[in-house]
Amino acid sequence: MTRDTNAQTRFQTATLGYPRIGKSRELKKALEAFWRGQSNAETLIQTQHEIELSHWQTQQNAGIDRIGIGDMSLYDHVLDWSIYLGIIPERFAAFSGLERYFAMARGNEGIPALEMTKWFDTNYHYLVPEIPEHLQPADFSDFLATVRRAQDQLGDRAVPIILGPVTLLRLSRFEMNQSQAASELCDRYVQLLQELKELGVAEVQIHEPALVFGDAANFKENYQATYQSLSQIGLAIQLVTYFDDLGDNYSWVMELPVAGVSLDFTRGRNLELLQQYGFPEDKQLGAGLVDARNIWKIRPDVLQSTLDIITGVTTNLRLQPSASLQFVPYDAQRERKLPEPLLQVLSFAEQKLEELQLLATHLRQPQEAETSLEAIRGQWQAFQDFSPVNQGVQERLQRLSSQDLERPLPYEQRLQQQPVLPPFPTTTIGSFPQTSDVRKLRVKLKRGDLSQAEYEAAIDAEIAKCIQFQDEAGLDVLVHGEFERTDMVEFFGQQLSGFAFTEYAWVQSYGSRCVRPPIIYGDVARTQAMTVREFKVAQSLTDKIVKGMLTGPVTMINWSFTRTDISRREQAMQIALALRDEVADLEAAGAKMVQIDEPALREGLPLKPERWDEYLSWAVDAFRLSAAIAQPQTQIHTHMCYSEFGDIIEHIERLDADVLSIENSRSNNETLFEITDAGYKNQVGNGVYDVHSPAVPATEQMVQQLKTGVANLPVSQIWVNPDCGLKTRSWDEVIPSLKNMVEAAKVLRQEVELTQK
Ligand SMILES: Nc1nc2c(c(=O)[nH]1)N[C@@H](CNc1ccc(C(=O)N[C@@H](CCC(=O)N[C@@H](CCC(=O)N[C@@H](CCC(=O)O)C(=O)O)C(=O)O)C(=O)O)cc1)CN2
Ligand code: MET
Ligand SMILES: [Zn+2]
C-alpha cells in the first residue's frame, strides 16, 4: 500500500497543557518539604524541572505533534503570569524570588495572600491577580528559559502556552484604571511575543477561556485591539477557548487576526455553531475532541459523527484534548484495584494522548486505526454488560412526587420545635485537623498493619479527643471531626455502590492540595449506613448536640467523574436518595441536627447564565430530596464556601435549610450583605474567620465582624462559625482560634443582654 505523504502531515495532534503535580505527587511532596524548611529552593526547582521534562517526554513518545509547554507551575499558572507581567501588589514589594512567589500564593506573617477563586466550573482554584496602581517591570526570563529547555527536548514541537491578556484582565482585581491596564499589559504581551520570536518560536497558544463567558461581548473591542497588536509580531497564534461554546460571539471571534482557533467540542453547542456559520478558510481549527474534563475513553461511533460534521466544514484541523489535561489524573493503567471492564474504558492523560494519535491515524489512514477502534467498541460493550443497573433505585425515582421534596412543615413552624440554644450559637463546619498521624492510620490499614477494628478504635480515639476539646472550649454544637474521611467526596464514593475509587488518580485542587475524585460508573445506591457509627461514638461522649455530617448530592456530582450515558440530574437524584436514607438513619440514631454540605453548588453553575435555571432547578431539588425526609424538629444545616449568592438567592432560599453557613472573611462580608439585602429569613453562620490562613484570629477581630452581622440581621438568625472546615489546619492553630471564637460569641451575648435591659 502506498502512503499519501500529504496525509501523513495532515491532521496533526496537539495538547493544551498537562497535569503538574507529578505522577506520584512529587511536586506536592517537594513543595511541602520546602515549606517545612526541610529542603531548599534548588531542590524544589530541580524537582519541578524533572517533572516537567517527564511530561514532555511522555507526550513526545506518544507522538504528539504540537506539545503545549510552559504551563508547569510551582503553585498556580495565573500566579506565574502575574509575576512575569509585573502584576505585583504593593504589599509584596519587600519580597523577591521564591519568597515573594509563595507570599503571594499563601500569605506571609500577616500579609494576606492573593485571593483564590474558581473562575470556571471546575474544582481548580486560580489565584486572582491584583493589578496595582503601578506595575513592576515585566520579567519573562523564567518563561523564556522554560521555552529554551523545551526547544532542546522537543524542537519545533514545543508550543508555548500563554495566559490570554483579555482573560487575565477579565478575571483580575484593579487598582489601576482598567483601560490603562489593558493597554500597558498589551504592550507587555507584544514584548513577550517579540522575545519568543527571537528564540526561534514560530507558534504560540494563547488561552482565552473567558471567551465562553456570557459577557464576552463586553470585551469585544479589547480582544480586537489586543489581537491586532499581537498579530503584528508575525507568530502563528492559536487562540484557544474551552469549557463551553462561543455562543453569540462565534462570528467576530472567527474574524480575529490569528492563525487558528481552538474550540471545545465536548461541551456546549460549538458543533452547531460550526455547521451554522462555517469556519474561516484561512484559519486552522483546533478541534477539542477528547474530553479533558472526564475520564472515559472515546466512543468511536459518537466521535465519528462529530468528525463527519467537522471535516465537512474544514479539513484544516488539529486533533486536541478539549482543554488542558490538568483536570484528569495521569495514567489509568496504574490502577490495580479497579474491575477490569471499568478499567478498560478509562482514559486518563496518558490514554488521552494515545486516543489523539488514534484519531489522527483514523483520519489519515482509516484502515490502520480500525483494529484499535474496534477494540474500544468491544470494551464499551463489555462495560455496558458490567455496569451496575439498580432497578429499585430507578423505580424509586420514578415514583417520587413533589411532596417528597417538601419538609413536613414550613420553616417558621419547624423552628418552634427545634433545639433552643443561647444567642450567637457557636459551631464548626465539620472537619478537624487531618494530621499525618490520622492519614498514617489509613496507610497502615491498607498495608494490613492494622485490622479494621484497630483502625476504628484509633479513629474513635481521635473523635474522643475532638469532642473533649470542643466541650472544654465551650462550643455549643459539636462535630465528630471527620477523621475517618480521606476527603468529603471520596469518602462517600467509597461507601456507595455505583461509585469506584482509585489509588493514584490525583488531580490538583490548588497549590500542593489534591483530590481523588471518585468515578460514578453505574446506578448509585446505599448498601449500608455510612456515617452513623462515628456519629454515635461522638454523641455518646457529650450531652451537647453533635451534628450529623453529610456531603450533598450536588457536590458529590460536581466533584466526581460522572457517567455520560445518563444526565447529571439523574445521577444527583440517585445520590440524593442514598443521602435521604442516611438522614433518616442519623435521625433514628438520635441526631438532632444534620448538616448537608453543598460547597460546589455555586461552582456547578453553567458558564452561560441562560443555562442557570435548568441547573439550579435540579440541583436544588436534589438537595431537597435528601433533606426533606427529616422530621420538623431535626435542624438541617448546609454549608457553602465560594458563595457569592446575590444572583441566585431565590434558589438558596428554595433549599429551605434551617441554617446556612457561608464563607466570608476574604470578601469583607459581601456574601452576608447579599443575603440580608435579599431578606433571607432562615439562620446564617457568616464565617467569622478565614480557615485558609494559618493566622490565629483575635477575639476582637471576630467581635467586630459579628457586630456587622448584628447590624444587618436579627440576633435570632445569627450563628458563629469559621468559614470552612479545619482539616488543612494544625491543632496549634485550631485550638486558640476556636477559643477566641467562643470568647467573641460571649462578648456579643453580653452586649445583647445589656441592650435588652
Ligand atoms: N473533593 C474536594 N474538593 C474540594 C475540597 C474538598 O474538601 N474536597 N475543598 C475545597 C478546597 N480543596 C481541597 C482539596 C484537597 C484538600 C486536601 O487536603 N487534600 C489532601 C489529600 C486528602 C486525602 O485524600 N488524603 C488521603 C491520602 C493521604 C496521603 O497523601 N497519604 C500519604 C501517606 C500518609 C502520610 O504519611 O501523610 C500517601 O499516600 O503518600 C487520606 O487521608 O488517607 C492533600 O492534598 O494532601 C484540601 C482542600 C474545594 N474542593
Ligand atoms: C469544602 S466544604 C467542607 C465541609 C466539610 N464538612 C469540612 O468541614 O471539611
Ligand atoms: Zn467549605
Automatic annotation (TrEMBL):
Listed cofactors: Zn(2+)
EC number(s) stated in the UniProt entry for this protein: 2.1.1.14
Pfam families linked to this entry: Meth_synt_1, Meth_synt_2
Domain (Cobalamin-independent methionine synthase MetE C-terminal/archaeal): residue spans on this chain: 424-746
Catalytic activity: 5-methyltetrahydropteroyltri-L-glutamate + L-homocysteine = tetrahydropteroyltri-L-glutamate + L-methionine
Residues the entry annotates as binding 5-methyltetrahydropteroyltri-L-glutamate: R25, E26, L27, K28, K118, R513, C514, W559, E603
Family in the record: Belongs to the vitamin-B12 independent methionine synthase family.
PANTHER family: 5-METHYLTETRAHYDROPTEROYLTRIGLUTAMATE--HOMOCYSTEINE METHYLTRANSFERASE (PTHR30519)
Entry's Gene Ontology BP terms: methylation
Binding, Zn(2+): H639, C641, E663, C724
Catalytic class of the enzyme: transferase
Active site residues of this protein: H692
Protein name in the entry: 5-methyltetrahydropteroyltriglutamate--homocysteine methyltransferase
Cofactor binding, note field: Binds 1 zinc ion per subunit.
Alphabetically ordered keywords of this record: Amino-acid biosynthesis, Metal-binding, Methionine biosynthesis, Methyltransferase, Repeat, Transferase, Zinc
Domain of life: Bacteria
Residues that hold L-methionine according to the record: I429, G430, S431, E482, D597
Molecular-function GO term, any one: 5-methyltetrahydropteroyltriglutamate-homocysteine S-methyltransferase activity
Database matches in InterPro entries: Cbl-indep_Met_Synth_N, Cobalamin-indep_Met_synthase, Met_Synth_C/arc, UROD/MetE-like_sf
Binding site for L-homocysteine: I429, G430, S431, E482, D597
Functional description taken from the UniProt entry: Catalyzes the transfer of a methyl group from 5-methyltetrahydrofolate to homocysteine resulting in methionine formation.
Organism listed in the record: Phormidium yuhuli AB48
